[in-house]
């Protein structure tokens, strides 16, 4: 009987390798390393708002979780935005610096796995997908897995206008025959808010400087984000009603969460540090 010693040796080596690999991967030490350092064979892509105000706070959410990036910290400290991609020091995460308004689309279309965005951006995006009847948009990200990160301070959506228009606004809340003309940068959120409160509103979409619209645009009110109220005061406007508190949330791709177990493991680590 003739033996192939090379084949026998190769099989013995393979069995030895597999047995030891299984034993190695079953240890608690590797589970912890997998959670914090050896998360994935590919980098988990995290989209962060690149604005000077929110970027340091958003990055710190992941830094506190053990995913620091020396390169990104240097960029933040120097105030530069020459680069838009930064790997974490353990190479587990790739941070992308993105306009905050675009982050919901990055998550929705799986260009990124996780992102941090403000309510006005992700809710406007969700509602726009309904308004345009586009089933491929607005349904692939989760915004309720984590509580409000409270990165926006006391910012909130308000209905505001000239003091003399407050009485008309109150009448619009009680009458279905009166139409409130409203200027806003957030038409879908505004439409949803007024409809849910039984107010007939003619929504005018603008790109900015909404405080000018009551004087130069002839509108009854504006629907805008207010933090200190200084801009309203300078334009002679007052708050008619505080509508919605502005929140900052972690957005997660449904598809990434379903097909990549490492996303779930990373989120478990992040949750413990919030």
3D structure, described in words:
The protein has 274 residues and is α/β, with parallel strands linked by helices. The protein has three domains: 5-35; 40-149 and 248-273, 3-Layer(aba) Sandwich (D-Maltodextrin-Binding Protein, domain 2); 156-245, Periplasmic binding protein-like II (D-Maltodextrin-Binding Protein, domain 2, 3-Layer(aba) Sandwich), CATH 3.40.190. It is 42% helix and 21% strand. It is built from twelve helices and eleven strands. The chain has helices at 5-25, 28-36, 54-63, 70-78, 103-108, 119-131, 166-174, 187-196, 213-217, 230-234, 254-259, 261-273; strands at 44-49, 85-87, 93-98, 114-118, 141-142, 156-161, 180-184, 201-205, 221-226, 238-245, 248-253. Strands 2-3-1-4-11-5 form a six-stranded mixed sheet. It has a five-stranded mixed sheet with strand order 8-7-9-6-10. Helix 6 (119-131) crosses helix 8. The longest helix is centred in the N-terminal third of the chain and has 21 residues, at 5-25. The model is unreliable at 21-40 (pLDDT under 50).
Essential attributes:
3 domains; alpha/beta; 11 strands; D-Maltodextrin-Binding Protein, domain 2; 274 residues
List the helices and strands and how they pair.
Layout: H1 5-25, H2 28-36, E1 44-49, H3 54-63, H4 70-78, E2 85-87, E3 93-98, H5 103-108, E4 114-118, H6 119-131, E5 141-142, E6 156-161, H7 166-174, E7 180-184, H8 187-196, E8 201-205, H9 213-217, E9 221-226, H10 230-234, E10 238-245, E11 248-253, H11 254-259, H12 261-273
């Amino acid at each position: 009987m003739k033996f192939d010693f090379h084949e026998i040796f190769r099989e013995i080596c393979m069995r030895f390798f597999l047995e030891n690999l299984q034993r190695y991967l079953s240890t608690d030490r590797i589970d912890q390393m997998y959670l914090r350092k050896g998360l994935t064979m590919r980098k988990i892509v995290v989209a962060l708002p690149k604005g000077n105000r929110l970027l340091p706070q958003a990055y710190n959410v992941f830094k506190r979780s053990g995913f620091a990036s020396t390169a990104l910290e240097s960029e933040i400290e120097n105030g530069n935005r020459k680069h838009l991609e930064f790997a974490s020091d353990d190479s587990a995460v790739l941070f992308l610096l993105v306009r905050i308004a675009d982050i919901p689309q990055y998550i929705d279309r799986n260009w990124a796995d996780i992102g941090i965005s403000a309510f006005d951006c992700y809710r406007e995006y969700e509602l726009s997908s309904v308004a345009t009847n586009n089933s491929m948009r607005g349904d692939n990200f989760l915004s309720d897995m984590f509580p409000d990160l409270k990165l926006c301070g006391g910012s909130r959506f308000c209905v505001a206008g000239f003091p003399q228009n407050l009485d008309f606004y109150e009448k619009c809340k009680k009458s279905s025959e009166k139409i409130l003309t409203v200027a806003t940068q957030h038409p879908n959120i505004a439409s949803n808010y007024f409809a849910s409160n039984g107010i007939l509103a003619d929504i005018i979409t603008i790109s900015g400087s909404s405080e000018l619209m009551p004087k130069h645009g002839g509108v009854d009110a504006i629907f805008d984000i207010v933090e200190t109220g200084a801009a309203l005061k300078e334009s002679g406007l007052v708050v008619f009603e505080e509508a919605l508190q502005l929140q900052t949330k972690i957005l997660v791709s449904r598809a990434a969460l379903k097909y990549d177990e490492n996303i779930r493991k990373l989120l478990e680590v992040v949750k413990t540090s919030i």
